[in-house]
Amino acid sequence: MSLPSQSSRTPSSSASRAAGARRFRVLRNPMTLSVIGAVGVVSVWWTLREGGANTALASPNAELQFITTSPPRTALEETLDQGPVTLQVAPASTPTTEPPAPAPATRPGNGFATTTPPSAPTATSLDAQLKLGHDLAATNPIEARRILSSALLSGQLASADARTAADTLNAITEQIFFTPVYNVNDTLFTQYTVQSGDALSKIVRKQKVACDWRLVKRINNLKSESAIREGQRLKLPRGTFHARISKRDYRLDLILDNGTERTVVACFPVGLGSANGTPLGNFRVRPNSKLVNPEWTHPVSGEHFTAEDPKNPIGEHWLGLEGVDATNRDFLGYGIHGTVDPSSIGQDKSLGCVRLLDTDVAIVWECLSEPNSIIEIK
């Protein structure tokens, strides 16, 4: 902003200074100041009315002109005499709106405010729970597995929803369960460092791992039981495996209970007994009934099949079942086994046993243990 009345001044004589002083004394008179103020207000009003002010402020860099009377010179005026001073009017910037900061949570009684950390996504309805589980499968598979397991174990899902949940859980299992990669955030596993003289069967017994040593071999992608070395780190499952069989959906859910939560780690299609012959209730693995490549005799026809017979209807794995409920304790001869007829999966064709595909029953056989594993048929 340029002040022309100051920039054009030259050093004045004594007479001029005296005249200025007299004018200053007149201006200090209250009445005089009142008159000048009134005139100033009228002048400003007239200027704005005529549009002069709008013209002067039209440009953001406009210079504002002021007309003043001349009081005695001061040190500031002497400084301003060194040259014109321009005041730049900056263009108005676009205001930005910041989102409000979250209100801090105050811990009662201590007087200190602490910021509450963001909580994990939650879902209240089963539909929302399913959607959240599917959405998290790629970015947070452990949390997705927990959410989908909870929904599946609730027993309240429709068949179609249960099938999609099972499919996503199987995809997650391939990614984080049947892999030697150990995730410290996965509470279903622990790690063990191989010692001199170890073998997988010995490690399973020593560490009280509730599964067959073949499952440890499978998870750690080992070629054989002896394919380990001292100092090697192995991934071991933590907890006890159980199974839940849905007759409605022809599906077996393999569950790992680590003591704090039950997690569905895999889902397999099954075949069931003809004429609704598969019994209901809770069962456990009958002691000494876990067999690999067993021989079998048909209970009705008496036909016998040797262990090596490719027509053996029960395949290469057998787990005998015994009832633990009052309603099924007398049921004998039922079991979980493989099949030489893959087309029977999803149908009622057995003599009451639970059939699985050979690759699936091998995993179930490795996971379920006696006498702690519970098999629920519902």
Describe the structure in your own words:
Helix content is 31%, strand content 18%. The termini are far apart. The model is unreliable at 1-71 and 82-120 (pLDDT under 50). The chain has 378 residues and is α+β, with helices and mostly antiparallel strands. The chain is built from eleven helices and 17 strands. Strands 5, 6, 7, 9, 10, 13, 14, 16 and 17 form a nine-stranded mixed beta sheet that branches. Strands 1-2 form a two-stranded antiparallel ribbon. The chain folds into four domains: 4-80, no CATH class; 124-182, no CATH class; 189-238, LysM domain (Membrane-bound Lytic Murein Transglycosylase D, Chain A, Roll), CATH 3.10.350; 241-377, L,D-transpeptidase catalytic domain-like (Beta Barrel), CATH 2.40.440. β6 (251-257) and β7 (262-269) form a beta hairpin. The chain has helices at residues 4-7, 14-28, 30-49, 52-56, 75-80, 126-136, 141-153, 159-176, 200-206, 213-219, 358-367; strands at residues 105-106, 113-114, 189-193, 233-237, 240-246, 251-257, 262-269, 272-273, 281-285, 291-292, 296-297, 304-305, 317-323, 335-337, 348-350, 354-355, 374-377.
